[in-house]
Fold each of these.
Amino acid sequence: MSRTALGMPTIRPVHGQGNLHADVDFPTAAKEEMANTQMRANIRHATHTIRGKRARVVEELPDWQELRTAGSVLKEQVMANLPELLEQFEKNFTARGGTVHWARDAAEANRIVTELIEATGSTEVIKVKSMATAEIDLERHLAEHGITATETDLAELIVQLGHDRSSHILVPAIHKNRHEIRDIFLREMPETDDSLTSEPRDLAEAARAHLREKFLSTRVAVSGANFGVAETGTLTVVESEGNGRMCLTLPDTLITVMGIEKLVPTFQDLEVYLQLLPRSSTGERMNPYTSMWTGSTPGDGPQDVHVVLLDNGRSAVLADPAGRSALHCIRCSACLNVCPVYEQAGGHAYGSTYPGPIGAILSPQMTGITAAENSSLPYASSLCGACYDVCPVKINIPEILVHLRDEDVRTRHGERPATEAQSTDEASTAAPETSAQKSSTGLAGRLFRRLPRVPSEMDVMMKGASTVMSSGRRMALAEKALPLGRAVAGRDRAISWLPGMAGGWTDERDIPAPPRESFRNWWADHAAETEDRVNQDGGFRDVPAPDRADDTDEEETP
Amino acid sequence: MSIEAKSEVLARIRGALQDTPEAPQVRRAYRRTSGRPAAEIREMFEDRLVDYKATVHHENTATLPERIAELLGTSARYVIPEGLDRSWLPGDTTGRRVLVESQTERAGTVLSVRELNEVDAVVTSSTVSCAETGTIFLSGRPEEGRRAISLVPDHHICVVPAASIVELIPEALDRVEPTAPITMISGPSATSDIELERVEGVHGPRRLDVILLT
């Protein structure tokens, strides 16, 4: 395809790699996960506990909505000015003795971190829980290079010791209950014995004893960051246990991997997010510990300080004006905790590092909607809107879900070429190494599947519905069939099985029997009542236009 | 560092922003200054600390050394940063001994991590505290010391001068130097990682005594 240069280079979105893919489509994965009743009971218990706590501490703040609005607007500013803010951050972090690295994708970030660790001569690192490093599958990559990474966050440690996968943004081991955790500790920690109880206090104590020596002896730490302040070059980690402080303070070398969207413009802006984040995530007024560092400080903490700024598909998310606000996410996980779909299916069903409602909009955008089975994720929602209500930065998740469903349908119908929707990273010299590669064996097959094809049953049904509904006469005819539906439904007034076209729907759910009378018929009999009521009220009146001055918020007009 | 990676990431972002989105101005319509009297703010601070299982004490400069002696117990080696007001401390006894950390790294004045791990307690002052969230800010000033000393010992005795307590997070952040190494502390270390229930006592100090100094 040739293109005439118009002065402005057109950059095609470059998508991310790593642990961002659902390799099994969501409905299939969810069905399997839902068979695990213990997991569902654990998640139900945990999410219901946290919902109540969150609601109480949010209610306490009279200005919660003002904080949310500020949090949302500030992130809009970050996205609009991202190149300038990144360079400002780099300048300030560097001026204070830190080193800034840029990574186009997961492979590049992994390579940079590995080389930095190798340069220290250490083969062991301690890790603070970080979504970015989970996304790029850093731990596995380090292991392949002979470097052992020890997770120090309790939940991450449970996942690591249990050879398990994370299922929640904040509490990766949310799918395990205290008894299962005790069993893992007994099996994997040599210093524990049968006297260990399943009391959370005892389990926390066991983790303390297990990791103490690691904290005291390991010379290199790897962390993520919750916020990076462009104005000052300051990095921030928000945590509870003190494992973060240990990693950020005791080693000689500190390497932080941060997504490029994690910036805030000014130090003052932290006053918004440090109120929004803890109340939304753990339901606390404040998390026990927050650490901030700007480059290195002589005599205090690591002197060899690095940050890796990670793209890995974020710029591709940014390229879609209708979806880019997914980048506003501050990883609080409130949307997971209120989601009825997450509650039933659990985090593993989403495949990606980012589960739940935010994952359902973030993962397909970061990888491109045609990557692996990620096109199934935008459908993993009932669109109830609970996620939007609790989001501390007001990301309209349901709206983006619908947008992505549209993207998916249009891609399937060839309105967007699949090759463009999943542009591979041509510019990157590093080959994808993680699940992107693993799943690339079936790439040809998947691409073929996405190309224009024979209309599906759904297409036929929708086309049929469109034909019927667009004509009053045809709609009226269709409604004549209502009594037939009632006959199929039988006494329990539910249709539990339909053949053929609608069959897929009734596999999973009953369709309520059609009502005795259609709305259209009912309306024909009752439409006149509206006019009667209006007349009773004295007819339609003009409502005075709102005073424009009310709309100008703070500016006083003299 | 790869200049190529940087220029490509920036080019991708600029390409993604070709619609030149315009962000609205931020309105800081949330509370930025407190309207509450100081006594009420102090009470709120204490309430939040107790809620987090920290222990709160009220002292003046005359009663402070005795309280610190009581909290340390008769047998304790404890560390203080060089800039801490020595008049706050009790005298050493045969069982109780103070170790003074210098930030200027003179020989023998900086404890190794392992030495710190053998110390029973640490006494520091603090920069500012936020009542609404029960948060104490340390920022590496001479009376607070480097971050490791308030982290590794299992018992942190933290003095909060009453005048340094503010109600709101914006008021507190206004009072810290952004580029200093900052630690915000809200209660003893804790975790919510088991069934999302908070339990106190993990890697950071398990015992936090806060002394409100008037």
Amino acid sequence: MPESSRVTVTVSFTMDPERYSNVWRWLRSLPKGKKSQAICEALDSGLSRGGVTIGDVYEAVKELERKLQAGAGLQVAGADDGQQWNGPTEHKAALDDI
Amino acid sequence: MNIGLDIGYSAVKAIHCGDPSKWASFPSVTGTSQALEFSLDEQPVNSILLASPQRVLVGWEAVIQSEYLDRREDRHWIQGDEWYNLFLAALTELTTATRAELRIVTGLPVAFLGDKDLVRDRLLGEHRPEREGRSTQSLQVTTAKVIPQPFGALLSCALDDRGHEADSSYFTGTAGVVDVGGKTTNLLSVQGLRMIGRETASVSKGAWDAVRSLRKWLSDHCPDLELRDHQVIEAIIARKVKYYGEAIDLSRPVDAILEPFAHEVLAAASQLWNGAAGLDVILVSGGGALLLGPYIKARFRHARTVSNPIFANALGFWRYAQYLAGQGK
């Protein structure tokens, strides 16, 4: 496809430069006229890699937690261990005899 | 998970924590599970439909929907399928865990305590219930303790939710318990939480006897009314029933039915406890406490209905399970 017939779109986005300081540094380091291409290649690389990020894992864990709280899926309940007797020994003996 | 389980002839009550909103209770009824032809809900919120090991509806939904019902009142029901299905239904009400280890305390009527090994053996081991729409559960009962039923009400007062001593007077004093169940009324006498055998007995009268009597009255006075047993119980408690849209006051027939029932229980208690003046307190518990409580309190001034009498036994069983857990038992 000839260069002149390409249709492009402009995408703007916002970011927190402190939270993503490494991304911010990288964006500022890109040469003028090459920024869009570099960003597209970086995004394309990240998407096509199909890799699992720590964010994905965190989301999956939170989703599992939500499901468990809703009563679905795998759940394992162990035996409750209880607590040591707080009263007199003779009272404990009465309970043991029941 | 520690569980207090009270499988009565009238209702099943099961507790695994101190939060009443999480306690389970349903009528001791199982029935056929034919599919509904029309329902606005896919499955009613309170329905208990076991898919396996047997496909049965349990509880209120069975009372309302099932074409055929199973409801037994004989001593040997603990060996039958209905009892086992009620047990499984109770566990599935308490937990959705696919795997769990359970410590269970339950009770038997005083007169049937000889069957406690049968009950314990049925409870122990692995159970694999499947509720409709859920995964099969593997529930391993590692400890099962069977104690006299009315001890539940007593322990609900003596222990707290941690299985700790809540009221030392029950450990040192004397107490009587009148536990009014569906088929039997248990009378228990203890001194320092130790059962006094000669002052403990079961009276073969319970809420179901009142049901039968009221059913006879209804067949004479409201001949076109067809109610199931649990609906009759509701009518006794409410003291009214709807007949062709009209509220029928049942106060007179209910009093006429309950008074002789109460007198029989009171006579047995007076005889067993030698007038009961030597007891520090008399606790009234069980589903029938709502029916007989006023009569018992009128006769014994130191009698009191325990808080939440329907769940009192299950609550005491659970608190005792908590205690046993603390002892590593």
Amino acid sequence: MAVDTTVYKEIEGTGGDYYSLVGWLAVMIAAGLGSTYYMEHHGHVVTGMSNAIVWGTPHVFAVFLIVAASGALNIASISSVFSKYHYKPLARLSAITALALLAGGLMVLVLDLGRPDRLIVAMTKYNFKSIFAWNIYLYTGFFVIVLTYLWMMMERRMVPHSKKAGLFAFVWRLALTTGTGSIFGFLVARPGYDAAIMAPMFIAMSFSFGLAFFIILVSVTYKTSGRPLGDLILFKMRNLLGVFIAAAFYFTVVQHLTNLYAAEHSGVEAFILMDGGIYTFLFWVVQVGLGTVFPMALLFNPATGRTCQGIVIASLLVIVGGLAQMYVIIVGGQAFPLQLFPGMEVSSSFFDGAVHAYAPSLPEVLLGLSGIAMTLMIVTVAIKYLPLMPTSLSDAKVDPHHASKDA
Amino acid sequence: MNAVDTSRRNLLKGGAAAAIVTLAPGVTLQTVQAAVTGPATNAKRWGMLIDANAPEGVWDLAVDACKAEQGWGKDEKDANPATDPQWIRKVSIKDPKTGAKASLPVMCQHCANPPCVDVCPTGASMKREDGIVLVDKHICIGCRYCMMACPYSCRSFVHEDVHGQRPHMPRGKGTVESCTMCVHRVDKGQKPACVEALNKAGSNAIMFGDLNDPNSEISRAVSKYVTQRIRADLGVEPGVHYRGI
Amino acid sequence: MRSASRILSLTILGFVLIAFGIGSGLMATSAQAGEVPLPKPAKAFKGEQCVEPTDVMRRNHFEFLKHQRDETLREGIRGNKYSLNECIDCHAVTSPDVAGGKVRTLKPFCAECHSYAAVSIDCFQCHSGAAQPGIGSQSALPADHADKALVAALEKHLNTGAKQ
């Protein structure tokens, strides 16, 4: 095994571009905090969420970020656990991106609570039958483990131990994503959830969303800092992304096919796939079309798939599709009414039997976006003060022995 | 012999009175200690039996009684149906093929295996030993996961500031609430407000009692008639039985 | 050279912190000289003596409340020594700030000390703390609650009388 000669160096971070980026991210975070104050002060009546749709836009963003967080750690895991040394130079950046995504997602989740002042209660009183309670440990544990892993990669004398830490982090993030998927999978009451496949589906989604986010991050940071980004590593990540998009799509297909087969679930399937209005549109046009088929075409068409721009656009589309998928799962799953009396038409003052209405409100959207802003802010600041980014990701640096072949 | 010695009698009366006054606190002190009620035990299992054949109007009575007792009602002009709490609601059912209709009230079903209790991260959603499912609003963080989990959609999130709470029913913004089966009345040996209101109107459409007591009215009714429970297939074992659906 | 200046700056920092600590201690004692008036919680509506001596209550009332709330809510034990309704029954007073002085609530009693100590409590976001006529029937206290208080007072009177 060749000695790792990668040079990691902080970025300059002194230009007007850098400061205006930080400024805009700070504004977005402030907007999210302002929304939180507004929602907390007036109560959730100012949002679009109701007694029927209890989790809305903030949860769509939060769950997306949390799912992407465990996926963003993939590059580091692949390099440590599976010994693919091409990805080694990006391992540090992968770890910090994972931490940043999780921090952003959790921030949104916590700020949306009805009583965020009781966060201490949530961290000291546990009902261990609840997957939520387990998730609190999984999320905080993830922070500790990935920080340790990152430190081990950066501290020369600990580098030999980083492989073990990487393996531990890899197993932990699988548990974390299983826990996140199980939040929905464990709900027997709702026909749109209640499926064991939720957990592996979320894992596949995490691979896809996390890598897409990471690719965009790497491309943008390298282009703007003027450091070389070679085709080799870019095309390797592109191929990985293609595989992950296909895997996530596979699980989606299996989930819907299984539901379609069972007469019990035909109602909710017809709702999502055919007459759900916005949810049907988001599923077919955005999740499947823009988020799966179109990126795959972009990635594997030689004209677009071999350009950095094409790969970045495909990654952006995957993220858009991912947000739509979260919206369909989280909001669509709640919009379809509970079947208290299967086969009967039901009505009441509490909207039984009727599709529940929901429209995202401004405070919710601002809060959700502030989560993404927090993620980007953490990464932006981290790459300035810590040596996380290799000075060069050119083909020669990534793989000194490579023979140039068509990727 | 005819002249009774009243002075001795008076002395005895006075002495007896003094003795009683001295002893009485000691005697009543024992009963004072026993005046503490509870704890609830699983010797009882509170439940309801609802007769869906009753005329529709009684369900409106039940809803109004609950609003008045627990304080969650709102003026018509301030009403916001999507976010206003509804602890109990009248559900109208129609068979799309035959046109047959029915209506019945749905409230917290006080399940024996409540999904809301399973999913609550802090343990705020809880089941008391005697089967009443409650929200401990002291530790509720307002995450609404229990609302996602409830098959009967019977929980409400308090979306706005609350004023004018009933002294026995603290409620506040940012927490989740649902039917308490009038636990404050049940613990005093009374019936829930909805049951009482119906009884006053001469209806027994909602019957309340101890399902574990074979001699209670509800146990005898549940043994005599085959009753149904909403979504019994889920295995959550609701404490609210229905007849006639 | 560098370590010397570091020692010097740390020493100065240490002195500053100590001075701050002593200074704030001095300022605290000067408060009792009359800068911030001490709280005067309202006299109880009825009863001569709380269920615990004043200094015990002052130090521990939150512990009692915290354990009592679980006993009442989670276990269904009502009417015992630290029951919230017991507190309300005696300590709820009228205040011009609350419903124009028409309703007896616990709020003015608690607020007096809590605003002095700047310890915010969120009890009254949910609890009305209001005493209403016939609280015995409104709350879950046993029906003979008022008699119980009378007997306790009588017993105390008799005991103190016997000692004379």
